[in-house]
User: What shape does this take?
Amino acid sequence: MSVLPPVRRDRIVGELPQCFKKEASLHSRTSFHPKVVSACQEQRTGTVGRFKISKIIVVGDLSVGKTCLINRFCKNTFDKNYKATIGVDFEMERFEVLGVPFSLQLWDTAGQERFKCIASTYYRGAQAIIITFDLSNVVSLEHTRQWLQDALKENDPSSVLLFLVGAKKDLSSPSQYVLIEKDALKVAKEMKAEYWAISSLTGENVKEFFFRVASLTFESSVLAELEKRSARNIGEVVRINSNDSNLYMTTKKRKSKCCK
Amino acid sequence: MALWGIPRLEERNERLQDQGPSRSLAEALCVGNSLLLPWDRFSAWLHCICVVGFDLELGQAVEVLYPPHSKLTDKEKTNICYLSFPDSNAGCLGDTQFCFRFRQSSGRKVSLHCLMDQFDKDLPVYLKKDPAYYYGYVYFRQVRDKTLKRGYFQKSLVMISKLPYIKFFQTVLKKIAPEYFEKSDPCLEAACSDIDRWPAPCPGTMLNLPIMGVVIKVRIPTCHDKPGTTTQLIETTPQTDAHISISLPTIHEVDLFRCFSPVFLHIQMLWELVLLGEPLVVMAPTPSESSETVLALVSCISPLKYCSDFRPYFTIHDTEFKEYTTRTQAPPPVILGVTNPFFAKTLQHWPHIIRIGDIKLAGEVPKQVKVKKLKNLKTLDSKPGVYSSYKPFLNRDEEIIKQLHKGVQQKRPSEAQNAILRRHFLELTQSFIIPLERYVASLMPLQKSISPWKSPPQLKSFSQDEFMKTLEKTGPQLTSRLKGDWIGLYRQFLKSSNFDGWFRTRWKEMTQKLEALHLEALCDEDLLVWIQKHTEVEAVDLVLKLKNKLMWAIAEHLPVKPDTVARLQMHIDSIISALPEDLQGILLKTDTA
Assistant: This one.
């Protein structure tokens, strides 16, 4: 049997990490949803309890620092030389949230134009989208709307979590930063995304950011799982009064409704 | 592409040597070492990926080759071209997947694969790489396209690999090929870059392999797994989101029940034919049916390795076509899968022919019982069935047939039917092989006959008569309910290449075990006392011999106790330091030589 090694000590999340800016955050609760906390305590997290995986995609313009962001977090390295990503990079990062093992698949997509045609293949099934821009380059912020639009084509906008991340914070002067942050917050609110500013060079906010991503995706998958379960319970009640083929039709209908 | 230049193999080899001989490339692959060059990880899985298209003037041609520096001889290219397309007009409209196997051209330079044979030693014998052959995994698309001159789009995406992991590569191709046909080169480039990031194909570990936005989870079996348990070893996550991850319960197994359902009543006979290495041809309507059936045949004697050549899909253009179809010699002991109707004529002198129609998904079992006479196979569209004059040695197992029949009636899921059939074959093969294992183990000399001061004792030689005598008391009747002429079956088996291959492996293992025991006996001796009683010349001789043994033990991975190698090295060092200084210098120098 292949037993996974224990989760690294510095990947254990016990409390909800806080957002970066209150005005552009996914939610302002200071702790995990009480339902999630009690579900984890009672170990009835279903699939969440067993090797639950979430898929995260990182998108954004060429050379805004997508790969550097991931490398700083996953490998704690920073390479000053630029090497374009061919197609997609991939990292798997394992966490333990509220005592439950949880993995993030991080798909780091290429910013290059010629790989745009295949991007949709890689976008499918993402639970969170990290839209990255360069804090020292206003144009890359402007392009984030387009990146989001492309990524959402393959995903359910109502359930996917969005993060707008400004990278290379070390490269912008405080006055420059104030200016671009104002714009970025505006874009983030418009997208309903959570805003973060990070520096992969210094490591500023990188760990905090990924812990927040892991925690929020974990929270939303547990909530979704709990909801599915209560829906299933209702389905069982229905079965008492109806035959099997009817049940099939009703569940199918329900499914298509929530996917829209 | 410029970033992915041709690997500077020589330079890397130098760097490997700098790090000492204990660092192998396989290890580097496992730990993600900086010694790795672009494409190293890719090469651990695949030799190359090609796109074969149809050119109106040239016929089939390799249009794209990834990685661009990968080497294929012209002969290999020709074979790949023909083997990547269906060779009969049977309706392969839409998408088809199949697999072929072809001979590697001789005289090729040592490739990276050879450096990674370390993985091979932990693999079950039937999954070990065959140095002389490549597998080709094909995804073929044929659709109407009015914009093209021919009116049809016909293209194959082909993965060439030494690894016989059919289920796995089929899954990977299914992810890549449809995307490639729509989005062209960047897709292939991205897929190759995904593969070049995969962990090494290490047996026994759970591998997470990202490809085209999903992660394929798979485990390569090891020779230490209990046979028949491989499929249960992977935790099947209830998670059904195929956009995120796919858990493959098996890396190589084909669906036996589905493949054998057209000739279901003859499974006992087919098992014997494969076991005995009889010439066998499968005539099927499409390459996917021929290749699956041939692979099912080859795997039905698992955990025994099928040792002769087999071609899941063989065409009239194959380099070996003449060699295998000549009428001047008896048919070769190989299994061929063919689809071209021409073979019905070319191979009509073959002793055993399986003809299958369309494999039905529901696993319908045909009713006809009789094995057909060979002379009936003159016409091109003979009915499905087994054509042979072979009389099985063992009686048919009516119980398994009844059980599977019942499963068909009760609509038992195909996976369950497959598992039942696989277990049946496994038990049958094990019942057959256990007496041989037991007898061969008795050829090992007694432990007490091993003396550190003599060369290791010889294994006793295999005697057919002696073996046959053991069958009376400890034969297959102990574990199998099947009646019949087991003796006759063994007699025939001992002449087959499958026995030869099996016996060679056992012989090698036992010789190594003897060497290992001998080495351990040497380590337990007080060698310093010994050299005091002997001359300097004898001491030097001993040192040289020990050094040789040590090198051999490391190179051959002798099954010694973990500390033996270190202890032997200590012995060598202490003997050397007990010798005069000038000799010490010379003996230490030979270390590096």
About this structure: Chain B touches chain A through 33 residues (CB under 8 Å). The longest strand of chain B covers residues 133-144. The first helix of chain B runs from residue 9 to 18. The radius of gyration of chain B is 27 Å.
